[in-house]
Amino acid sequence: MKRDKEKAAITKFILKLLMLFIPFLIMLSFYFKDDPFMVLRHYTRYDHSPVLLNEGCVEWQMYLNNRDSITFNSFIMGNSCTMAYPCREWEKHIGSGRAMRLSGPAESMMAIYHKLQALDKAGAPIKNVLMILDKESLKKYQLKTGYSNILPPAVSGISNFKFQETFCQAFFYPKFLIPYIDYKIFHQYRHYMRGIINPYGAVRDSVTNDVINPRETMIKEKGEAYWKDEASKFENPKDPHYRDGKYKEAQPVLFDNQINLLWRIEKLLQKHHTAIKIIISPDYNQICINRKDLEMLKRIFGAGNIFDFSGINKYTADIHNYYEGGHYRPILGTRILQDIYRNQRQE
Description:
The protein is α/β, with parallel strands linked by helices and 347 residues long. The chain has helices at 2-34, 55-66, 87-91, 109-121, 135-139, 153-156, 160-172, 174-186, 214-222, 225-229, 256-271, 291-301, 330-346, and strands spanning 72-78, 98-103, 128-133, 275-280, 306-308, 322-324, 327-328.
């Protein structure tokens, strides 16, 4: 009698356990079938995903997809402000060669170094590099590990298991899973899905990885009303002296770890005889890069290769050059390219 009760209790426990695991197994099978992050299988195109994908992974895979048919030898690297520099515009200034964008949101200098190492290991020619940086990029010297920033194993050196585990875990986080299921069922974008679901369709060129920014369409349709509607995104309520017309300089961010990493990048570029151009972004906040940091960059990469557009100047004066306080438009990036290469030709 006692043994029968124990068996019944065990059976009941197993059934409860199965009831708990069945939803998980269903969602896990759904994850492997749907591949929402597009990392489980190989794809020829990544420009029409309903999910906002990991930019670093997509861009590296697009390089692998196209390198046999297009000899890329020039690379735009850095943070999300690389969106302001279309490859076709840069190609006008660098002579022969094809360019592509290998960047990432909030990109770290370590990520840039790993990408250059991966290009070197793959036998890619690295004739030109255009690096778009700011003080935040320069400060970061470690790789990020979140699903939106983790780099593929061929670039980062992590195991494929760790790489896949990161995305699988992210899928089950409510922050991702709830908006994803909602969108899959109703096919309707809601505001709370921001940062998870892509409501715009194609957001990147399928070859160069240039950004196709929907805000350009909004500006074209709205005109001046765009900046009135987006006014709050140009403000900084935490800083009462934001854009007050007075000189401001950022705190130094280059210390031993960052400086050593920059020297490693420079050494790799020297190996390829790379023509390097580093642009310090014209941030809307008009805060200058620290003078000591600027001098260190010039010492490492050469003064003629560093172009500082931070602070109060003609580039940062006009709000029409910006989408919001954190990103500027190709209309400004194109102008900057014209200016730096025109000055170079005149020297």
